[in-house]
Amino acid sequence: MIREDNGLFILEGKATSYLFAVIPTGQLEHLYYGRKISVCGAALTALRHKCVNLSGCSIAYQKETPDVGMEEICLEISGSGKGDFRQPFVELVMADGSTTTDFVYESHTLQEGKPGLATLPAAYDDTGSASTLILNLRDRTQALILELRYSIFPECDCITRSAVLKNESGQTVRIKRLMSLQLDLAGSGYCFTRFGGEWTREMNRFDSCVDQGRMVNSANTGTSSNRANPFVMLSHMDTTEDCGMCYAVNLVYSGNHYEAVEVNGHAKTRLLAGINPEAFEWQLAPGTSFETPEAVISCSDAGFAGMSRQMHVFVREHIVRGEWKWKERPVLLNSWEAAYFDFNESKLLKLAKAGRDVGIELFVMDDGWFGQRDNDTSSLGDWQVYEKKLPGGIAGLAEKVKNLGMQFGIWVEPEMVNVDSELYRQHPDWAVQVPGRDHAEGRNQMILDFTREEVRENIISQMRQVFSAGDISYVKWDMNRNFSDVFSAALPPEQQGEFSHRYILGLYQVMQTLMAEFPHILFEGCASGGNRFDLGILSYMPQIWASDNTDAISRTVIQNGYSYGYPQSVIGAHVSGCPNHQTLRTTPLETRFNVASFGVLGYECNLCEISKEEKQEISEQIKIYKKWRYILQFGTWQRLAGSRLTGSWNYGSAGTFSSMTSVDESLQLVKWLAVDGEQKQAVGIMVQEHVMPNASYAQFQTRGLADDKQYRFTNRSLKHSIHRFGDLINTVSPVHIKKDSLLHNTAAHFIKMDGEDEDVTVSGSLLNYAGIKLSQGFAGVGYEPGTRLYQDYDSRMYFMTEIE
Ligand code: DGJ
């Protein structure tokens, strides 16, 4: 709830308070954000910044108040030219060339609920618990209004903020920056956590301590970017997974973004988030307004885990929308890594049939079905079926797949065009490029100018035809290049700085139109994997392909990174073939499944060419996933203690680790748990990177089960191939067996080694605080039934079920 008491604005969540007040000179002083406190207007004196004499080099705000200097105060928003030397929230150039701004309080309104934004996607509330505060600030000399909007979602302790600048003057004002959020915190030395990397290496966690100076996390690729996801955290240096303060910010935006932390000489920390001011400029004509994307902020003193829980609820409840919001996602089989561009209808149907036989529910035809697309050099923009490959068209294939008992899905990349396409030949000016200059390409393709209405209309109409060309249940919306040669033939020179933001506005309009027309289709966003994984896309599409890297070990790092700000139900994760196509690493099928099952599970491999045993294994996996699917997709996701990717300051600079040298450090790469809302059931996994010799001990300790309930704890029983023991087989065989000989292979066909069985019934408190000691791991001194064979890249899945 939000209230105002004698000039003190109080935003209260379930466990947090956010406080600010109007100071006598009219600015908004930020007073507190943290654990909930009991407070009323009378507390203002205690909370306000105290100053009688300004320090040596400070600027006094005005003659009448020589004790007020903007540099030392925590502010809700700041401008330029009045003595606050930190980076501003708003930066303008007036018609006369001046850049000083001074926005002061004029009025405010309080309302129930959460209004949307006029031009951008935004969080929404249909639980009836959100409330909103709108403040109007006015510049002291120019006819400019700055509207600040705050909404609180109390059940998940999240606040959204955005701003609108209105030009009521008679002259155009140039916006050089307008942020979405400013958070000024007292103190310095916070840990600033960013998540980035590159293609196939998304979401590595980087922690840096910020003392006096500035640190920036930003994207200028035109996308929210795999180099720097817009989700960031600020925490205390001693914050851990379970304890200590953690602030987190994300943006409901898919374009160039900027999150900067700055500490000034007075040990005040400022966090800014919004559109990247680099290469951005907006001409704000008289009578018009400009709206910023929404920023989401949350804080928890229950460590990273507490903050993640809040963000997950927020994303599921207030960002994802439409029919698929709480609907279990089907297990899909995608044709990409199975066939790439090399397919025709009969090949696809064989693959689909193999998928049907193991329990796949949705068959997806990826890239290569349109124009004359045999490789990535042609046809983007020409969204008519490639008849040589699909003589029966989309409808024909979709029907045959349906007849196999599966749903049918299709891949598109609507924002792109190849030079070798009919669309480009007809409309070269529709592609983003600077006239008179050679253009650069990425993956042999160019970007369509979505700032232009005629371009958007053409693509909407082509997509409309594709989506209604057959019985289509799923669409993968891909986008495979970063921006270059940024320019629109439809914008005047002084508005070229508006291009990147206008592109995103255009993209959202296209998505909005198509999603509204096809509400039953399950859309999955994708941008070479995670190059546009953000809350803007999730406002239209309920899930995003998280990375083009399907290697299970890489995926532990990537999915663990996403888990800080995003729930499992939005993360696309597939089991692929081995050696893996991105890393050439070979990992057990079991581990590929375990890791992918902590996301929206799919398969992306040639099921027609795998062994009978693998088929059998996959079919068992899919049965298990379907049984536990709701918890795996919608349960509370916990990063458990005893895993190397959990906690603070434990990442190497690239998110990898040197090999462990002592048993004390014998931790798993990840341990994850998903617990259902009623704490009746949970499913967990642990994944090992490299085996440590003579380290046979391991335990599995949960978090979030009900202390006073009894649970049966079991594992997924495994049978091991005798091949895993190599020539050690001779230590038990009555006859000598040569490794990899016919005899060895024949024996392997008939003999399987029983894996360990964990089966105990214990209290939730035991699981939560003591943990289960797992069966002894193989340590080179014999293998008895019940030994846990747990070597390089092995993993386990555990189940916990309440016993009444
Ligand atoms: C990039 C995607 O991330 C892949 O999964 C695949 O769809 C290719 N594009 C197809 O071109």
- Enumerate how many helices there are, as a single number: 14
**In one word, what is the shape?**
globular
Bound heterogens, unique: (2R,3S,4R,5S)-2-(hydroxymethyl)piperidine-3,4,5-triol
Number of strands: 40
Approximately how much helix is present in the residues? Answer: 10-25%
Low-confidence stretches: 647-662
User: What's the gyration radius in Å?
Assistant: 28 Å
**Average pLDDT rating:** 95
Span between N and C termini?
38 Å
Secondary structure category:
alpha+beta
Largest sheet: 10 strands, antiparallel
Question: In a nutshell, what does this entry contain?
Answer:
The chain has about 800 residues and is an alpha+beta fold. A hairpin with a 2-residue loop joins strand 1 (about 1-5) and strand 2.
Task: Characterise this structure.
Strands 6, 7, 8, 9, 11, 12, 14, 15, 19 and 20 form a ten-stranded antiparallel beta sheet that branches. By secondary structure, this protein is α+β, with helices and mostly antiparallel strands. The protein is globular and about 100 Å long. It contains 14 helices and 40 strands. Bound molecules: (2R,3S,4R,5S)-2-(hydroxymethyl)piperidine-3,4,5-triol. Residues 336, 366-367, 411, 478, 480, 526, 528-529, 545, 548 line the site of (2R,3S,4R,5S)-2-(hydroxymethyl)piperidine-3,4,5-triol (DGJ).
